[in-house]
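Office hours follow-up: a student asked to see two folded examples consecutively, so here they are.
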Amino acid sequence: MKRIIMQAPAKINLGLIVRGKRPDGYHEIETVLQMVSLYDTLEIAQGDDGIVLASDTSALPLGQENLVYRAAERLALEAGRAPAVRIHLAKQIPVAAGLGGGSSDAAATLAGLNRLWGLDYPAERLRTMAVELGMDVPFFLLSPTAFAKGRGEQLTPLRPPKPPLWVVLVNPGFRVSTPWAYESLNLGLTIKNKHISMLRFSITAFEDARFPLENDLEGATLKAFPVLGEIKESLRELGALTGLMSGSGPTVFGVFPNRQTAASARQVLQRRRELATYLVRTLDAVPVPSSKP
């Protein structure tokens, strides 16, 4: 039986500006999304009946609360077919960590089933379904680097950093709720950033590695969890050109001038057992499905 293997990459936010709150309850944002080489792996195969989702972690629900399950259900509805599929999800991306793991898994499910079922839907059709699942999901079907605005669903592909940037991800082992991060945001304090163009800023950042990045969601989160500020400072002391919380956190990342410096920094941070650390690089292409008999 043919199986599709999908690698679902994590993302980091190379800066995030909150412009204000929208009438629909969402926040108007600008951010640059960048895929990095930390992956969940999905093995997708035709099943006998219904959606059977299994995982190597007990930290995830395996029913309709899971974005992978909902993505399979949504694509089956679009195709007018029974959702008979077996999916095994091997997690490497920390859960609720600001790295987009759930969204990436959902996008990988859409792309993988599109191939397994021989639907040949164009990427734009998949992205239309993806936005129904979550604001970050369409990004993982578009480009390794993209400028996002609106609720995060309005995407413009960008040229990936050349050469790739070396990044150390540091996860403190606890979760931060995205709704809490936005609700805790003091919009009055972000007014100083309203004149910044995140798109122009990001392009400048790629051309000059020594760039100061800002994330409007950091203020309240770093105040509530001081260890995140300590991690940022440690990354800078270990040679990072910049450090930032990714998305709504709590993962913090540092961008380094080369692989050697990044690897040395990670080695130091690994001594703190409460921290999960990852040495990754920025991607210059979206992972594609691979088949196995």
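And the second, which I mentioned at the end of office hours:
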Amino acid sequence: MPRTLLSITLAMIFTAVSFARADDYTVEAVQESPEDVSDDIRAALSPEGIHVEGPRRGLCDIWLAKELATIEDFEPRLTIKYPLTPGQFVGVMVVPRRAGLTDFRGQEIEDGVYTLRYGQQPMDGNHIGTSATSDFLLALPAGEDEDPAAIEDVDALFSRSADAAGTTHPAIFLLLPVEEDQAGDGESAELVHNEDDEFWILEFSAATEGDEKLPMRLVVVGESKG
């Protein structure tokens, strides 16, 4: 095959694959409340959830808290971009059977119901290069987390999250910084594909005090390169 024709053919194949990948993951609204959570957790949740569909089956469903408390006069720092408090309740995640969901460390998250709480990656030698920022959501088994009040003991937070991964390390999902042009419309969730890092990023806005919105970007598919 002539070199020029080969180049055109490869370009067409690459373009077709790129368009196919754009539809690998989709998102839609969920109207039903999650099951197998405590009454207190259910009461703290927004009634509408977010369903993330993978290439072959559902990946996860996420419900956010009705209202997130934010740190007053918060100023973003080099590695901390979200005005949240470690241990704070953020929502609930349901992982269906055979979803194949993994966290940011590549740990498989078994099917089940999990609470999501805000956490910060420790600034120590064990975590150098794993991510540019320290903002994460941690998954905890919902059966062990029935009170939406903040978990102030960070060691207990990490230990209980490790139960979700079945390892000694917490089950973590990276929160990426939100730039002004990435805030979305504040009304609907979107999935964005970062081809450089091979991340699928769920972009959404969470309600805060005073009817304000907190834009958030959560990596639902993708792993640390560090």
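Two things to take away from it. The longest strand covers residues 112-120. The chain is about 15% helix and 30% strand.
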